[in-house]
Write a structure and sequence with these properties.
12 helices; TIM Barrel; alpha/beta; five-stranded parallel sheet; six-stranded mixed sheet; 405 residues; Urease, subunit C, domain 1
């Protein structure tokens, strides 16, 4: 049994969007306790003059995409992947992100290493392999490939499974769920990071989407969809998709349809600025940089539209490889158009719902995990400052301190 006591500081409560004084926050055996005796602590931290926030939550990461240099990525061995993913995982936790949602790629070994204590890393909810059509956003191959010579119409990689037709999508969904996927991720529009799919194209048919949704529903979970355009977003949510990733080209009509279908949106704005800033230096292909430019300018506008319509928004980043160091920049970008309360609501209220962890994370309440970020920044007064390099003083995961950057 281990006990950690954080004395002093001011505690942020996402339930009320208020900050209150804190005498002693007690974390006993990884859980916050109501009136635990602060005596006999294994760890004591003085947070006087600082603020206590629940651990940060990122609802869109990709540990498998461990470098922005895609040609090099395609040549890595599993050992190289493992080393790179472990490094990204530890850095993510050190930045304050104690829980994340991985949107595609085989991270089975990474999660096992974190669980066993071999490495440090955030608690991770996973989609396992992305599901995409041939030539879709999740199809990482380029050039001419032979048509699959089996009836299943499927191709696999460490990142995703290419599945054509409702039966193939159904099989891909079942394989993912058997492998431990917590939810399913499909692609219904073009994307920035893959070679063969124009941004404006719509991917998957009604029958294919419904097959994935039915399999997820049968397992008491949901489908999330990569989508940029109004056409793709509408196709997804009207056929049962619960969560839209990105949504940069969202319009007012589509936002209203999302509200009517009680669908969530996870914008990921910092990734486009990161790719524009660092992509060429890190070897990101020119054709992909051009697609990135097309969605970069529209991203902030989509936030305004979604917020005005009342779309339920989560908080994510979608950063790739080396650019994951810019994870907290999402706070500053959203602060250009949203209030601090709206941004904090996205992270601490909506993200736990999207991750199906409402009773575990997102608040510093008794019974929840002792995941804490200690910061000199008052999040209600200057939330953009959480993006600064010195914004995090200390990170605790289940009451245990981890190294902050």
């Amino acid at each position: 049994m281990s006990k950690t006591v954080i004395r002093g500081g001011s505690l942020f409560d996402p339930s009320t969007m208020k900050i209150r004084p804190n005498d002693a926050l007690v974390i006993d055996d990884g859980r916050i306790v109501d009136s635990g005796d602060p005596a006999g602590a294994n760890v004591e931290i003085d947070a006087s003059g600082q603020y206590l926030l629940p651990g940060f939550i990122d609802a869109h990461v990709h540990f498998r995409l461990a470098t922005l240099n895609f040609p090099r990525l395609s040549q890595w061995t599993e050992v190289e992947f493992g080393i790179a993913m472990a490094k990204l995982s530890e850095q993510t936790l050190a930045r304050g992100f104690t829980t994340v949602r991985d949107l595609g790629g085989d991270i089975t070994g990474l999660r096992g290493a974190i669980k066993s204590g071999a490495i440090n890393g955030p608690d991770t909810v996973q989609a396992h392999l992305m599901i995409s059509q041939t030539g879709g956003h999740g199809d990482v191959a380029s050039g001419v490939l032979p048509v699959p010579d089996c009836a299943c119409q499927m191709r696999h990689s460490a990142f995703g499974v290419v599945a054509d037709g409702a039966d193939a999508v159904r099989k891909a969904a079942r394989h993912n769920l058997r492998a431990g996927a917590d939810f399913l991720k499909i692609h219904v529009s073009g994307g920035v990071a893959t070679p063969m799919d124009p941004l404006e194209c719509t991917q998957y048919t009604t029958a294919e989407i419904q097959a994935a949704v039915q399999e997820a529903t049968n397992r008491k979970t949901y489908v999330s969809a990569h989508a940029y355009t109004p056409e793709a977003i509408q196709l997804a949510v009207t056929n049962g998709v619960k969560c839209i990733e990105h949504g940069n080209l969202l319009d007012e009509t589509t936002a209203q349809i999302m509200v009517e279908h009680d669908a969530y949106l996870v914008p990921t704005l910092t990734t486009y600025k990161a790719m524009a800033k660092e992509g060429r230096r890190l070897g990101f292909p020119e054709r992909n940089l051009l697609k990135n430019d097309a969605v970069l300018a529209a991203g902030v506008t989509s936030l305004k539209i979604a917020d005005k319509a009342g779309v339920k928004m989560g908080w994510g980043t979608d950063l790739i490889g080396e650019t994951q160091a810019m994870q907290r920049q999402e706070f500053a970008i959203r602060a250009e158009v949203l209030t601090a309360e709206a941004i904090l609501h996205s992270m601490y209220v909506m993200n736990p719902i999207i991750l199906n962890k409402v009773d575990q994370i997102g608040r510093l309440d008794p019974g929840l995990q002792g995941d804490v970020v200690i910061t000199p920044v008052n999040p209600l007064e200057d939330i953009a400052a959480l993006a600064n390099d010195n914004a995090v003083t200390q990170v605790l995961q289940r009451g245990q301190p981890v190294n902050a950057p």
